[in-house]
């Protein structure tokens, strides 16, 4: 075992090489290594563990070693061997803090000539630079094959056709509309025909979601149950995309589209909705029209969904993080009220703007075990947290398989990706895949996420960058002395909570 201490000499910190000592194995409960979703967030109070630690240390005076700051300790034990760059945004400071806990890493303010790059996206990144173990990035080159909504739909559709599976059994009915396609009129007609058929079913409200294919955190999502509203939403979508991309259109490219509505008109026998779209060569104007889940399982009368994390590492192995969480709405569920997005969209980026945010739960978030306790109290035998996780993992396998050859088509080995998967469950216990996000939100917006997210990131780094950016030749058990900072009740500090699922 490699040991090293610090002494203070002439106001400077100097390392002292110690002799090797036998390693004393700590004893851990085997249950914490096998169970999934065992963390009960309602039993955790944000500062409790910190206060207990303070009480323990106040009972005795600090030694000269303990008075040395952690940053000073790591800088003296380890020589800076690698440089990282962390882009601002999406709680980049947390990523910095975790990387700074690795004393062999130093930070640089630009991404030029560094070893590890943490970015919000890989747009503009040149993957041909990944020529050796000198540089790594936190995005797969082709992650859009599953993180882009229309690409995921296309890949799942092809996969289901080959395997005789029905995609409608686990993904809400979805239509991809390319506003600049030559088949736009026909694509819209297919949607309108299906919309009209659903409208005949008096048991359904015929509610749909309009989504941009490449945005997350609820951005750009709108609800509609009327074709006239859809036309207005498409018009606004075009204006926004044209403004963002500075796209110029002319009247020569204008296309007039006619949508027939099922309502009967006394004069014509049917109502025609007519609107004009200026088509361009820009292929970014794609819409996803997805059927809204009208019978969701509710938690105390409010809608919720699940966020879980999936890691694909630099060797094309993929993992499931054992602890996911629920994201809850701030208002009671009301299928007849489509004006308030706070009822229907549970993303934290939206809910945090509601005046009742955190009224029921801190951060409007709960753990999987919290859900199980609620289901037990409601005597709901159709749904269990264990069953939900098992079905999630089955669907994750399918999303990886459907685009496996494309995800694996990486020119270099020094890239990985953490995905945020969103699922929902209906009141019959069916699990639905909603979407997959690149650059998932890592804001520590509740005591629950203050525990889960740092552990998730640190354990992901242990499986990736620590494998080829390790100090000297020591093992992780020797150089990661600060694992206690990422403790989660029910698990050993040294457990890695990424559950191996397979290899692409």
TrEMBL record:
Origin superkingdom: Eukaryota
Pfam families for the chain: TTL (PF03133)
Q: What is this protein called?
A: Tubulin-tyrosine ligase
Q: Which source organism?
A: Paramecium sonneborni
